[in-house]
Amino acid sequence: MDRPNRRVFTETLLALAKNDRRIFALASDSRGSATLNEFAATLPDQFVEVGIAEQNLVGIAAGLAKCGKIPFVCSPACFLSMRSIEQVKTDVAYSGANVRLIGISGGVSYGALGGTHHSLQDLAVMQAIPGMTVLLPADNRETALLTQELVDYPGPVYMRLGRETAPRVYEDDYRPAIGKGTELLSGFDLTIVAAGELVRSALDAGHLLRKEGISCRVVALNTLKPLDTEILLTAAKETGAILTVEEHSIYGGLGSRVAQFLGESCPVPLSVAGFPDEPLVTGSQEELFRHYRLDAAGLVERAKKLFRRKQAPRF
């Protein structure tokens, strides 16, 4: 049964921490939203609660890392990526500390709580920090396996997780690799490139396009930085058009990264699907996806428009 990725993360982390006393979980009055109550009760000596003090949260984590511990900082993405960014840049990244920053309820997961709780800039901020790895797992399996991988992964990491149930994308034999994308659907007319919990919508859109006679390739990226340029270059050369899909501002996220790379390596018609540069309307996550055409039906419309651009004569 599909569950929220944040819950899968904390269950996986607890199982790992029971056998590895180096692992610590840290929260900023966020043990509820991060589903860390069981962790705190089971392993109180490996849990740190700092209250609403995100700057202190990250500073303490950096200190623990320098003492040989493996701190997992669990805080809402909207606050972790904004309030503590100086400490992330200076205390964590500058010193190369092995701190895992887990942005809970990323994107528009908080829905109707509005702009104060949306995190549509976190990927832009985090990927601009030198040495920071940026991860966006798509489903429960990928979340669990990437969490396991992070225990001994070198350097600082930011991993964004959603709040709601994450629909299944991958089969039981799937093994993710940091920095490597996955081709979920083959095709030669255009490619949809998606990251995070919108991968399922992208895959559904790919199947709908096939029914309408458009051969759509779907590529999933679990890592925004480092970017899998090889899979992107192959897709651009073989399909000739790229649609990127992300739960983020259209500025500074997946679309910007792909555009920068392809602009230098293989320019093709490109469309960036994300949230516009304006205050968002209020609604649930599902309602916001539908309103901003980030659901499967909306992505089909965007892909058709891109396909027409590809077919149009170029001057």
TrEMBL record:
Similarity section: Belongs to the transketolase family.
Phylogenetic classification of the source organism: Bacteria, Bacillati, Bacillota, Capillibacterium
Cofactor dependence: thiamine diphosphate
Domain Transketolase-like pyrimidine-binding: 3-169
Alphabetic keyword roster: Thiamine pyrophosphate
Organism: Capillibacterium thermochitinicola
Domain of life: Bacteria
Any Pfam family the entry gives: Transket_pyr
Protein name in the entry: Transketolase family protein
